């Protein structure tokens, strides 16, 4: 003859039996006690079972689906949280920086990767892998192998944006608004270097010889 079971305890017992049936059917729920366990309505668990766990014998908890541990204190995510994620509650992971998705399985780069860069995990951290002509944390900086001189800025692969007074693939050619004469050479914006015996802003003046 069994023990009389109070109403609330009967409800908990029914819940435990239902969970046991699920476990024995091959569910992904946390592993419970063996089939045929004895439920003691007077059992006490110290500390108490958490997350709707049922105290079935002294200091023995039967955990609800999605929880595990001696007192059902740990949430159980299935599949497991990846990339260092922490299971907060069944099916809910808290992901570290650089990872997202329900199970932290997606790599996410803050701000995205520009110009064809690919976001991937490198040594456990999310990073942009850039095409050969781009660099920077987001692949935001173009690369100009020839360099950009005289204050020029690389704005696209191999292309420099030059300041006023300079032109050329590397901003290396000065511009004189009025051309240098008599073989003179423009060496900086509006500045000529003259060949002797010429001088002046445009090398137009011949030095007098005595």
TrEMBL record:
<protein>
    <submittedName>
        <fullName>Schwann cell-specific EGF-like repeat autocrine factor</fullName>
    </submittedName>
</protein>
<dbReference type="InterPro" id="IPR000742">
    <property type="entry name" value="EGF"/>
</dbReference>
<feature type="domain" description="EGF-like">
    <location>
        <begin position="172"/>
        <end position="204"/>
    </location>
</feature>
<keyword id="KW-0732">Signal</keyword>
<feature type="disulfide bond">
    <location>
        <begin position="194"/>
        <end position="203"/>
    </location>
</feature>
<feature type="domain" description="EGF-like">
    <location>
        <begin position="105"/>
        <end position="140"/>
    </location>
</feature>
<dbReference type="GO" id="GO:0005576">
    <property type="term" value="C:extracellular region"/>
</dbReference>
<dbReference type="GO" id="GO:0009986">
    <property type="term" value="C:cell surface"/>
</dbReference>
<feature type="domain" description="EGF-like">
    <location>
        <begin position="41"/>
        <end position="73"/>
    </location>
</feature>
<keyword id="KW-0245">EGF-like domain</keyword>
<feature type="disulfide bond">
    <location>
        <begin position="109"/>
        <end position="119"/>
    </location>
</feature>
<feature type="disulfide bond">
    <location>
        <begin position="176"/>
        <end position="186"/>
    </location>
</feature>
<dbReference type="InterPro" id="IPR050969">
    <property type="entry name" value="Dev_Signal_Modulators"/>
</dbReference>
<feature type="signal peptide">
    <location>
        <begin position="1"/>
        <end position="25"/>
    </location>
</feature>
<feature type="disulfide bond">
    <location>
        <begin position="130"/>
        <end position="139"/>
    </location>
</feature>
<dbReference type="GO" id="GO:0005102">
    <property type="term" value="F:signaling receptor binding"/>
</dbReference>
<feature type="disulfide bond">
    <location>
        <begin position="63"/>
        <end position="72"/>
    </location>
</feature>
<feature type="disulfide bond">
    <location>
        <begin position="45"/>
        <end position="55"/>
    </location>
</feature>
<dbReference type="Pfam" id="PF25024">
    <property type="entry name" value="EGF_TEN"/>
</dbReference>
<keyword id="KW-1015">Disulfide bond</keyword>
